[in-house]
Design a protein that fits this description.
homodimer, DNA-binding, Tetracycline Repressor, domain 2, Arc Repressor Mutant, subunit A
DNA sequence: CTTCAACTGCGATCGATGTTCGCAGTTCTG
DNA sequence: CAGAACTGCGAACATCGATCGCAGTTGAAG
């Protein structure tokens, strides 16, 4: 049954027939729980079915493919993004939205993997987009620039959150491959070539006391003001 | 044989024993050819072995895992990045490097998938980093800000190139899922809710004549100047 | 030159995964 | 009440990454 439609346009329940035992959101919730605990790779069809007490093939009555399950999971996670009412200052509003995005991503690190390649676009993601556009509604700037700014903002927030998660994970478990990478990096830094990198590497471990939120604010603000050349501070 | 070392620190040839029939770069080249033609998913161990005329299990004499093969491929692709000599203006130099990054990514679109989650760090990627730091060497700015700027730049270039590739692909083949997404988007835009999104959607299809390179320059310049608050231009 | 440990290529195979097929049971509709 | 439509799902298939063990080959030590 090749359903070419998007899952968001496909009706959840069939018109006729017995009532389904589960629903999409239940599948998504089970997938989110699994991914939160053991990463996105642990979200296999069989694992989700087991968590639900269902047979491995039952899930295909609700979703057409695993990709769609991930899409449901992403949108469910995005539903946790709070949308505060706009306060008039577009920079502050957008910064608040960026903080929400970061918070949810820290709570569900697998979002980085799920949204790295594809760009799921469910109702809650759409609501996020609408919110961001609403924050910029007072700005006298072409729509294209606003969409660009939002896309760049999203990319930057993702990148920042990714390094934050990576560093936090390295601090706890130091999981082999990170160790191997550090070894290679010090090898590169002390090799004599790459002088700039060596200097940066040495300077990096010196003063690291800036709070993460402050760094986050500084970078996001810089990027946004650079893109929308604001006159406000 | 659990080799915990990075592949870049592991010796390519063994000290004793017969000469290997292939080498790492040959594997990487075969993988790149396959990925260029049919995407990263087509780079399976068996496919690479077939392309080389080798048995499916032979590759594991050169790499420990498929991840390492992808790492080799990424670094080989990054070797195509040209490093022009610095011209004194850091913004121009960094912009040139960004263009090189975009060019190589357009030539090897699978780089987006390969670098989406992981961040391979081979010799050529390190050389790129060194070049970017070198371009900023004249700036009176803490090293941390330079590293941040480079990371953000990389994220932005990736995002821009991804949308560019996606749109180009949609223009040619319009591959089903894009069609489904467009259907959902128009459904959202015409639903009455999401007024800002509807307005943006309507305005987007109006005037689209800005050349891609110009848009690229504009955004990258905006982001960089916003981050490093340049006084130039 | 001999010897042998070390390495190479690789066929066979394992476990896991996403997905399909067909069937029995269930439920809503006309 | 009868049949159509749908559900749950056991079994199976193709494909994937990875492992194991063996025969053949090489290079260095004595």
């Amino acid at each position: 049954m090749a359903t070419a439609d998007s899952i968001w346009l496909r009706p959840e329940r069939a018109a006729r027939g017995p009532a389904p035992g589960y629903d999409r959101d239940t599948l998504a919730a089970a997938g989110v729980t699994l991914a939160d605990a053991h990463g996105l790779a642990a979200v296999t069809m069989r694992a989700v079915a087991d968590a639900l007490g269902a047979g491995p093939a039952s899930l295909y009555r609700y979703i057409a493919t695993r990709e769609e399950l991930v899409e449901l999971m992403v949108d469910r996670a995005h539903s946790e993004i709070r949308h505060p009412e706009p306060g008039g200052d577009w920079l502050e509003d957008l910064l608040g939205l960026a903080h929400e995005s970061r918070r949810v991503t820290l709570a569900h690190p697998w979002l980085l993997d799920a949204t790295a390649t594809r760009t799921p676009l469910g109702p809650n993601t759409v609501a996020y987009l609408e919110g961001a556009l609403g924050a910029l509604s007072g700005l006298e700037v072409p729509y294209r620039a606003k969409l660009e700014a939002i896309a760049v903002l999203s990319a930057v927030v993702t990148a920042l959150t990714r390094t934050e998660i990576t560093q936090a994970r390295a601090g706890r478990t130091l999981p082999q491959w990170q160790q191997a990478r550090a070894a290679y990096l010090t090898h590169v830094a002390t090799s004599g070539q790459h002088p700039h990198l060596a200097a940066a590497f040495a300077a990096q471990n010196a003063d690291d006391d800036e709070p993460v939120e402050h760094l986050f604010d500084r970078i996001v603000t810089g990027v946004l003001t650079g893109l929308l050349h604001s006159d406000a501070v």
